[in-house]
Automatic annotation (TrEMBL):
All copies of domain AIP/AIPL N-terminal FKBP-type PPIase, residue ranges: 27-154
Native source species: Odontophorus gujanensis (marbled wood quail)
GO cellular component terms, A-Z: cytoplasm
Localization terms from the record: Cytoplasm
Keywords assigned: Cytoplasm, Repeat, TPR repeat
Protein name (record): AIPL1 protein
One term of GO molecular function: peptidyl-prolyl cis-trans isomerase activity
Pfam family, one: PPIase_AIP
Gene3D superfamilies, alphabetized: 3.10.50.40, Tetratricopeptide repeat domain
Domain of life, source organism: Eukaryota
Length: 333
């Protein structure tokens, strides 16, 4: 089956090699498209430049997220599930292919796709550097030319049908996701599913940290986001206490207290982690700091200090017995 179509886009021709199934999918902003592709030169030999099957994994793009080769979204949105089609695209649509291919190849090789790039747009990087590190891509960069893309569409998933990666969310989507994740984490804590709850809190923190990275530290926007991050980190640390991950609690609470050295709850959780790993002096210092910062927590601190004292006395007795046993064994020998 080979039928040639014009997509009402200048410089594009489509040929269907294998028909798809059903109706044309609903391609809406945020939909995830999964497909295999092959890129060929428009020459007599039809030289293969890239083949996603050789890389061992299909390609994914998110509709409306400004993929660098904008024409690919147009091509894929003309396809049915299971369809295989060949697209001829003029050079006006293929100028960015060398840079995109470079990134995809580096990922397939297990390397950082942004290695060596300055923080500029793709076009700026193209002018800054004379070589992509691949001879065939350098040729495409020097001499923009028509390319042929053979694509096989596997599936189209609506935004609500798959787990959105943080990078694929807009600012508004990330902000909307945070209270949902926070609430879900709280629900899981009540069910004592601490590992799953920790994952929800962690995901919410990642959303906020990504947004925070675009703000100037300690200015209004940054501080507002930090105010949302802090309780999530504390909830995450509480889950880690329940799971016995005490050193992780020490790490996260210490990092939090470097920014907010008056947070009594952070000191309290760090004190509990210190106590759990037998850091008696550090635990006592943190518990006393809690009582100083928040007198309302004094009763809880008194209880924890009593428990700490009992545990340490028991440990000292056990240690003394152990050492006596070793000493007697040594004398006997």
């Amino acid at each position: 089956m080979e039928e040639t179509y014009l997509l009402n886009v200048e410089g594009v021709r489509k040929k269907i090699l294998h028909g798809g199934q059903g109706e044309l999918p609903k391609f809406q902003d945020g939909s995830k498209i999964t497909f295999h592709f092959q890129t060929l030169k428009d020459n007599f030999e039809r030289t293969v430049i890239d083949d996603s099957r050789e890389a061992g994994m299909p390609m994914e793009i998110i509709v409306g997220k400004m993929f660098k080769i904008e024409i690919w979204e147009t091509l894929l949105c003309s396809m049915r599930t299971g369809e295989v089609a060949e697209f001829w695209c003029d050079a006006i649509h293929t100028g960015m292919y060398a840079l995109v291919s470079k990134g995809m190849r580096r990922i397939a090789e297990g390397r950082d796709p942004l290695e060596g790039q300055k923080h500029r747009c793709g076009m700026g990087n193209m002018f800054d550097y004379h070589s992509t590190g691949y001879d065939d891509l350098d040729e495409l960069q020097r001499t923009p030319q028509p390319l042929i893309f053979i694509m096989e569409l596997f599936r189209v998933e609506e935004p609500s049908a798959y787990k959105r990666d943080t990078w694929a969310m807009s600012k508004e989507e990330k902000l909307a996701a945070v209270p949902v994740l926070h609430s879900e984490g709280n629900r899981l804590v009540l069910q004592k599913e601490f590992q799953r709850a920790a994952e929800k809190y962690q995901e919410a923190v990642i959303c906020l940290r990504n947004l925070q990275a675009k703000e100037k530290p300690w200015e209004e926007g940054w501080l507002k986001l930090e105010g949302l991050v802090t309780p999530l980190v504390l909830n995450y640390c509480q889950c880690q206490l329940e799971l016995g991950e005490y050193y992780e609690v020490l790490e996260h609470t210490t990092e939090l207290l470097q920014k907010h050295n008056d947070n009594a709850k952070a000191y309290f959780k760090r004190a509990k982690a210190h106590a759990a790993v037998w850091n008696e002096r550090e635990a006592r210092e943190d518990f006393l700091r809690v009582a100083h910062l928040d007198p309302a927590m004094a009763a809880a601190v008194k209880k924890e200090l009593k428990l700490l004292g009992e545990r340490m006395r028991k440990k000292h007795v056990e240690d003394r017995k152990r050492y006596q046993g070793l000493f007697q064994q040594h004398r006997g020998e």
